[in-house]
Task: structure prediction
Amino acid sequence: MTTATRRFEGFDLADGEDQIAALRDCIEQRIDELLEGSGEHTDLLSAAMRAGALSAGKRMRPLLVMLVARDLGCTSPALVDVACAVEMVHAASLMLDDMPCMDNAQLRRGKPAIHVQYGEDVAILASVALLSRAFGVLATAQDIPPVTRTRLVARLAETIGTQGLVRGQFEDLHGGARSPEAIATTNELKTGVLLGVAVDMAAIIAQTEDEVARSLRAFAMAAGHAFQIRDDFHDLPGNDSAVTGKDTGKDLGKSTLLVSLGLDEAQRRLAGHLSEAERHLVDALGSQAGTRRFVAGLFARGSARLRFAGGAMPAADGALVRTHALSVN
Result:
């Protein structure tokens, strides 16, 4: 049993920010351990993998795996590895999204993008290696029955493939002028599916009822839509990249809900998605508040720093949070 797994076992952690900080530290330590065998640290490929997976981030998706599982009554030590596998996939997707042939981003999480640091060839290979490592981690996770591991691997494959992240990025790059409904579908594939797989994996390991799993999935999709609209607001000219941690203005010329619907309607939809996410999360988890506090904290963080149409970004109404400025880096 690894050091990170021993620290996590039993969820003997304080509530609130102390709990989140302890879980985040556990996740990052375990990712570091899982990538130890990827090569010498001086090797460019290994260094790029580690830079992509261990760079500063909120660890929203792996934390969702662990917090939702806890709220469902599951405290298996294997959740750490499952959470890390999800984060490796997320890191790999960001590395590919930033490539010059994709979004051509120079910054990610406040630092030069991986292709800027290590070259395009190394960035591509490192992202593929991270994807491979993620599947390997799931396939060999301890304390999980074989049939459950099979379900987890299959679910992650669906998330990445032509009905998930790959399809979403393709449509974002090649969709041209699209209807608001088509844009929403692309947003669901680009953002919602990784949130969805996080809660799905928690539900699979916790062996929860189908109705609960459906509510969790609906929460993830609603939250994904909210995050993507928030990301479109982040991309407005005038938002400092030093605050957002990545290039701004990259979506100029793309079909986004801001372009298609206008700022006021996009703001209204954002508020609606937040309210919907809250409702589904309550349906799934009832009085268990760990996940809800975490999500609310993410939305609340950093709102005062963004600008919206020449002024402060207005807050969204809703029970879950009172502001929506969440960085999904």
